[in-house]
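Q: Protein A?
A:
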Amino acid sequence: MNLRRVWAVAHKEWREIVRDRVYFLLAFILPPVLMLVFGYGVTQEVENVPFALLDEDRSALSRDYAHHYISSRYFDYRGQLTGLRDADRLLADGRIVVVLVIPARFGEELTAGRRVVIQTLIDGTFTARGRTVLGYVESINAAAAGELQARAVMRRLGIGPAQAEVLLQPVRVEARYLYNQELKSIWGVAPAMIMFILILTAPLLAALSVVREKETGAIYNVYASTISRAEYLAGKLAPSVLISFLNGMVLWLM
């Protein structure tokens, strides 16, 4: 293999990539854009879900129950509603995703020891997000119901919070997530995107270069020259390897 021939092809290829706007964008701008779109834009976390509250009871117990949702980092409280018509309008406009409806006599029914049904309206346009939001609602409701049960047991038996918790939940599971304790998808998606982008861009540049030379007729100069196939391919791929190395460093820093 003649290194002078390889260098000549690589030098020509590099000059074309730097001078051509489309090539330059594909080589240096496309990889960071893909990282931003797929690494940071396409996230799997469902947080700060906009929700509104329709409290028809307006008692101390209903405010305590609603506070579990308002204080959660998974929900973004957007205010009180006056009726179900407002809820339907806001859900249809996409301004909110969840509406929590606390019925009248909520506190009275709980004080009397009777079960109360809470209505939750969830926007099901995106099914994955809807299922996740439903899981949040069920978890927060279970926590609130557990606090109410603990208070009832404490009043009836005259015991402390710790003893009431043991009676209500004798077996407790404490889960710890290793290597990604916050369960942020960005920590798994972004490193994988580096390899995916590098695998995508280098062959794309080389393929486009060969196709353009064939369309313009410049490939016949290669046919008529004494350069071998291996030298031609090595010269074509050398700038792509260098660009991939630079892009890898930029993506790693991102």
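Q: Protein B?
A:
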Amino acid sequence: MLNYKQLHHFWTAARAGGIVRGAERSGLAPQTVSGQIAALETELGVNLFKRQGRKLALTETGRMVLDYAEEIFRLGSELEEALRSRSAGRAMPFRVGVADVVPKAIAWLLLAPSMDLAEPMRIVCREGKFDALLGELAIHKLDVVLADSPLPPSMDVRGYSHALGTSTIGLYATPTLADALQGSFPACLNGAPLLLPGAEASVRTPLLRWLETERLRPRIVGEFDDSALMRAFAEAGAGLFPSASLVGEQLCRQAGMVHLGDARGVTETYYAISVERRLTHPAVRAISEGAARHQLGGSTAD
């Protein structure tokens, strides 16, 4: 079994830039630290350091072991913090990354069950580009990422995509714009000002394909990576816009939008991406179970 005390000495020395500095940080003699690292190398059957002039440098294997050690001791610190928070009655942090293409109303719908747990959670939301959020997930700065697409197979990130639910896509407009459209849906879209999600949104391509199949020619007046900004333009009357039907009633009731109709066959699926194949984090599990209770649930994809 791996000796974590020896691994900790290696981790300290590697981060400090050498055995002498590592020993100073540990308050031990350099010979003690050197002996612990030598014992670890013997146990693992590899060399972790190599001579580079008068200094020691990590071998390629040493760099790999350091990456794992960083994760091991970071998780240990998180465990200590979680236990201290629990004993002190403080809320545990739940760190969520929300891809900027996910509508805010959908994010709330999915995250709401995590706010009702018996054990208090302090939700910390980060919004950003999907790739950047996955990078933070990979180094455990986030507990989960909410996105409109699964983990790309081309990305070197160890993670799992848990499908939460799928929604049809409707087209919405302000009452003034809706009254100005000519004809019935979907023919009324011809010549109408249309706001589109940006290239990273998974719904963009099927929506454009639907317009092409239906031989519709709206005027594309804006493209938005941020779903909230697209909605703000739509509410100002700049154009009609696509949105998940799951929150269509809310759009009509709270924002005064008019539902023109649905883009037949166009859907959007939402995913919780985590580093766990089986969900164990209580808040992430609550999100998945909440989606299933509201008939939004899907299957898990590796």
